[in-house]
Specification:
87 residues, 3 helices, alpha+beta, globular
Amino acid sequence: MYLHLGNNTIVRKDDIIGIFDLDKSTVSYKTRDFLAQGEKEGRIVNVSAELPKSFVICRENGEIRIYICQLAPVTLIRRAGLSQTTG
């Protein structure tokens, strides 16, 4: 199965490692460093020019790819039919 992230971008559900809220998770400097490193290495894919609300980490052919998405994490989780866990 596949998950539509918006703007003609689709990922395989089996490739998804995690779906994260951009506002809540970037409070941590470790997450900001992870995203900055991903951008430096060319692993970031901006799905839309709109205000981003989430990011999706995928492993595609052994490579980590990070999709910045305008959709809310709850919307993506619901679309994917994934269970949502809170910590």
